[in-house]
């Protein structure tokens, strides 16, 4: 996955997730082009984080850890965040699910 | 550590939240807190979503509805698009930044990613059985 063309918000999410989780594998991708928002918006993201930090934790706890890491962005610019938080021991190269089709969301 | 981090997260959410006339610590008015308490206790399975279960207005909300429908789980839906105060209130109440939000027997379970992953991993039937929610593929459920 090329990081050369990623926007500033994606880059920031990547930095924060790297610092918090020292991931074995990390994917951060803006998905706003799939949603009912202006071109170039950086509001919808998917993140796939593989980390030892998730070992032994229930899925909701793993998601809360990611939410906390990115709480500032979620309280401001990031409108939607799809999370795939995988403990390292359960990682075997599986891909994150595709995003469901946007249904308009009333524009936000 | 997680608890402390969660409080910090609520702090961030608080500053972005709609503030009501009588705010108590936590950025949620007593009135709204009581309202949401009542909602999540009134029905066994509750979903705060965008749109309705007949007409979801968002792909993530629709996915939650599809998972619950697949397992024949009846649920009560609340459309946050028609109630901005509720929309912001549940985010503080649940300490969860996004919609949809699923509650089972008054306990927050998660959003779209979590419901879908519980369904795919086959965990959801056991979970619903444990909570006493009739479901299609559970051991006590209806067929």
TrEMBL record, chain A:
InterPro entries: BolA, BolA-like_sf, BolA/IbaG_stress_morph_reg. Residues 89-108 are annotated as: Disordered. Gene3D superfamilies: BolA-like. SUPFAM superfamilies: BolA-like. GO terms for cellular component: iron-sulfur cluster assembly complex; mitochondrion. Belongs to the BolA/IbaG family. PANTHER family: BOLA TRANSCRIPTION REGULATOR (PTHR46229), BOLA-LIKE PROTEIN 1 (PTHR46229:SF2). This is BolA-like protein 1. It comes from Caenorhabditis tropicalis.
Automatic annotation (TrEMBL), chain B:
Keywords: 2Fe-2S, Iron, Iron-sulfur, Metal-binding, Redox-active center. The keyword Iron applies. It comes from the Eukaryota. SUPFAM superfamilies: Thioredoxin-like. One of its GO terms (cellular component) is mitochondrial matrix. InterPro entries: Glutaredoxin, GRX_PICOT-like, Monothiol_GRX-rel, Thioredoxin-like_sf. The keyword Endoplasmic reticulum does not apply. GO terms for molecular function: 2 iron, 2 sulfur cluster binding; metal ion binding. Residues 45-109 form the Glutaredoxin domain. PANTHER family: GLUTAREDOXIN FAMILY MEMBER, GLUTAREDOXIN-RELATED PROTEIN 5, MITOCHONDRIAL. NCBIfam families: Grx4 family monothiol glutaredoxin (TIGR00365). This is Glutaredoxin-related protein 5, mitochondrial. It comes from Caenorhabditis tropicalis. The lineage of its organism: Eukaryota, Metazoa, Ecdysozoa, Nematoda, Chromadorea.
């Amino acid at each position: 996955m090329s990081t050369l063309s990623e926007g500033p918000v994606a880059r920031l999410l990547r930095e924060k997730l790297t610092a918090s989780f020292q991931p074995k594998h990390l994917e951060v991708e803006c998905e706003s082009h799939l949603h009912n928002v202006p071109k170039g918006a950086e509001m919808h993201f998917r993140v796939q984080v593989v980390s030892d930090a998730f070992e032994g934790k229930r899925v909701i706890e793993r998601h809360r850890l990611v939410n906390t890491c990115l709480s500032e962005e979620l309280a401001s610019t990031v409108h939607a965040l799809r999370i795939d938080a995988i403990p390292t021991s359960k990682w075997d190269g599986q891909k994150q699910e595709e995003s469901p089709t946007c249904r308009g969301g009333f524009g936000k | 550590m997680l608890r402390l981090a969660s409080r910090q997260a609520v702090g961030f959410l608080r500053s972005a939240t709609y503030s009501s006339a009588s705010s108590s610590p936590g950025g949620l008015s007593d009135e709204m807190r009581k309202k949401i308490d009542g909602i999540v206790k009134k029905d066994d399975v509750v979903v705060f979503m965008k749109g309705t279960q007949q007409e979801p207005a968002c792909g993530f909300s629709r996915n939650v509805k599809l998972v619950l429908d697949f397992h024949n789980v009846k649920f009560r839906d609340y459309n946050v698009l028609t109630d901005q105060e509720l929309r912001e209130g549940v985010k503080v109440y649940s300490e969860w930044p996004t919609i949809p939000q699923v509650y089972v027997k008054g306990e927050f379970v998660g959003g779209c990613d979590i419901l879908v992953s519980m369904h795919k991993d086959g965990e959801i039937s056991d979970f619903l059985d444990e909570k006493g929610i009739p479901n299609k593929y559970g051991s006590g459920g209806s067929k």
